[in-house]
Amino acid sequence: MKGIDKKDQEAFAKFLVFDKKVITSDDIKTCFKVQKAMNDLGILSPIDKVITEKGYLDGTVVSDLIKEFKGGDEDFVPGYRIISKLGEGAMGEVYKAVDIEENKEIAIKVLFPHLGKRKSTAKRFLQEAEICKKLNHPNIVKGFDVGYEADQDFYFYIMEYVDGVTLSGYVKKNGILQEDLAIKIIEQMASALEQATRLNLVHRDIKPDNIILTKNKNAKLCDLGLARNWAQDLSLTLTGAVMGTPFYISPEAARGVEELDSRSDIYSLGATLYHLVIGEVPFKGKNSMEVLDLHKSSTKITSPKQQRGDLSHGLSAIIEKMMAKTVGDRYQNPSELLIDIELLKKGEEPFAIQEKKQQDKIPQQLNVQKTDTGIHIKKDDQYRQSSVQEYSIRPSKKIKNANKTPKLFDNFFTSAEQRVLSNAKWKLVGLISLISLVIFLIIILAVFLVMRVFF
Ligand SMILES: Nc1ncnc2c1ncn2[C@@H]1O[C@H](COP(=O)(O)OP(=O)(O)OP(=O)(O)O)[C@@H](O)[C@H]1O
Ligand SMILES: [Mg+2]
């Protein structure tokens, strides 16, 4: 983009000093003095150039500010005026822009041109973007549109602009999270995943960089429907050229499993949470392959509670359960995770702790076989069947019920409402049993009286 014209330089200076507050009025006065001195020597230099040459602002920052001052760059993606670049990741560049027709701020992710060469992937991306448009959740960055720019040969994704900072940026600036903020974020993300799961959407790339924290400390999940579609193009297989970062990848994704479900996202969310409260990623290595191997291996994470004493046992156990290596040992869906978070918030013992306590009771020599439904003891075990029963850990009834919530309910009630309904159901069963018992006793009494009168 061209620099600032002479006629606009006063207005641009005011824009920098008063609107953007990126330079002081004294510094800008110095710049004008330097410009005049150079002018007297016959060297013409626009004010933006003087500002960068004097080192007051970085060249790219000034260029973004010029774009913003001029009202943006309209040519790049038709219909949108680019304001500034927000960042860049494995898939492409993200810009803050204005939707010209609607006059509202949005964010555009412009995908790198090599993505989309595989026509089947591009088609799936466009189809899934349609599903994403149906998502309406306060903790999911809303996707507005997707498209293909034929002249310049790139795909783009138009989404809600979130004024905030990514969780990785937040931790870098403010240090590790307090437990209550960590719980709030994880609850919001679990709720976001609950809705995504209903539409059969798997994120595949949950990490602190893909969660933005707003000024009101609400978390928003970014890039839903993006990572999954480009995974193949990004070689997220066994080649080692892992998309983005390998630090939050689930064991099954690291093994190259194609059909992932919400339990993979739950693992990555657990790894994200671990990073937020401990300040370090759960597994470190010399290179991506080493990190991948650690995620794939049976090596468990070091208990968060051991690393940070002030963390509650409940949150620590929840993270460990989210990051269980065997898929069947994790929360089986986001609703189960929400139940445990609710228990933790109420000061009650999450199921993750109860299971941990039971697991600790299992003697090492037992021939234990882990399955997706819990831990079962093999029949030929040396222990008698009765003693085996006490060690047979299965998901509690409450958790099983969460799995079996009728499909019809899903469409009408949120998970919180479903939990209220499910509690109410048990109260109703209790009441009906009591009434039945009273009626039964009355009948017995009546029979007894009749027999006494007539016999
Ligand atoms: N909807 C949005 N609103 C505001 N800022 C955003 C939005 N989406 C992304 N950003 C910003 O753009 C930056 C780059 O995002 P991008 O998704 O390209 O990279 P990433 O998340 O680090 O990597 P990946 O490509 O693996 O997702 C983010 O760090 C964030 O600061
Ligand atoms: Mg991202």
Secondary-structure-derived class = alpha+beta
Order of SSEs, N→C?
Answer: HHHHEEEHEEEHHEEHHHHHHHHEEHHHH
User: Which compounds are bound in this model?
Assistant: adenosine-5'-triphosphate, magnesium ion
- Binned strand content: 5-15%
**Major sheet details:** 5 strands, antiparallel
CATH fold-type name of the largest domain: Transferase(Phosphotransferase), domain 1
The total count of strands amounts to 10
Question: Any idea of the CATH class of the largest domain?
Answer: Mainly Alpha
Q: What is the fourth-level CATH superfamily of the largest domain?
A: Transferase(Phosphotransferase) domain 1
Amount of helix: 40-55%
Q: Give the total of domains.
A: 3
Number of helices: 19
Query: Strand order across the biggest sheet?
Result: 1-2-3-5-4
Distance between the termini: 109 Å
Mean pLDDT across the residues is 81
What CATH architecture of the largest domain do you see?
Orthogonal Bundle
Quaternary state of this entry equals single chain
Using only C-alpha atoms, the radius of gyration works out to: 29 Å
Q: What form results from the Cα inertia axes?
A: elongated
Enumerate the spans where pLDDT stays under 50 for 5 or more consecutive residues.
233-242, 364-416
